[in-house]
Amino acid sequence: KKTMITYHFNALTAWFFLNIILVYYVKTCDGFVEHSLSLSYPRIEKISSAPISKLYAFPEGSDDNNDDDDDFNNISIIDRFASPRIDDIGLPLADTLVAQFIAPSFQVFTISLTRSPLPTWLSKPLQDSSTLFFERGYLLTPTLIHGVKLASCWILGALAARAYESEAFDVGKDYSKGFSIPVARTLRAGAFATGLLIIGTQLDLYHQFGGRLVQLGESQATDVRLLTAVDELIKDIIFEASFLFGWRMYRANLTADPTNRIR
User: Fold this and answer.
1) Handedness of CA 162, 60, 27, 252 (dihedral sign)
2) Which distant-in-sequence residues (6+ apart) come within 8 Å of 43 by Cβ?
3) Nearest-5° Cα angle at 94, 106 to 118
4) Counting Cβ atoms within 10 Å, is residue 49 exposed (0-12), middle (13-18) or buried (19+)?
């Protein structure tokens, strides 16, 4: 029972600090501090009284932007992380909610519904616990901890792909700009996040096998663990990609309605 309490505490701590870091990062980054006035964000009192569907601000002249994405490589990779432009201050937190909680929760629900084998990130905490009967919500803690890893990969991918700039989620009034740039930047962010997830999985396996590289065919035990890791990796990518891409396209679709655009 003490092990489970410690595990719950670690999960909540990781979740808390991830969101604190995101809030601090958004408020102190170049995209918020220096661009907050030039991008004509709504006034604070207007935000507090306006419906959530109307809290979408865009840079002046954003409707005149071209459909191309030729300036994508004009910013160095270091500047994308060190001083990103974030035109929607709530989008990183919304992305975190989808990547950390919604997508992994639906994955757990699907596993339970299909009675598939539990992934190691979900089964290991249960095996380490000495509790005979688990309390309600015992699957929440490992899901949150695993979600922190997934959300971290996505946030870094979104920063690398400049997915928090208005061009990445603005389709223009009445779809005048189209979905080409939102789709392209979402896919770029997903590709970067997938690479980070693959690297993280390899490092985790390297640590599990005592600091040595293993390959298929060494033993039955290593083959089972490697194939299990690949299966879990594919499931993570499928669920994260499905929910994040769907959320991003929904977010971009909202900008087609002129009533959702505030000057």
Assistant:
1) negative
2) none
3) 20
4) exposed
- The structure tokens listed for 61 are 């002249």
Tell me: the pLDDT tens digits for 4-58? 445 445 555 555 555 555 555 555 554 443 333 333 333 333 333 333 334 444 4
Measured between alpha carbons, how far apart are the two ends of the chain, in Å? 54
At 6, the amino acid letter reads T
| Six-digit token string for 59 | 């840079």
Q: What are phi and psi of 56, to 5 degrees?
A: -120, 105
CA atoms of 168 and 160, how far apart (whole Å): 12
Amino acid at residue number 27: K
Could you tell me which residues are beta bridge partners of residue 262? Answer: 57
Name the DSSP class of 129: -
H-type alpha helices, the chain:
2-28, 30-33, 44-49, 77-82, 91-97, 103-114, 120-128, 140-160, 180-208, 220-254
- What's the alpha-carbon Rg for the chain, to the nearest Å? 21
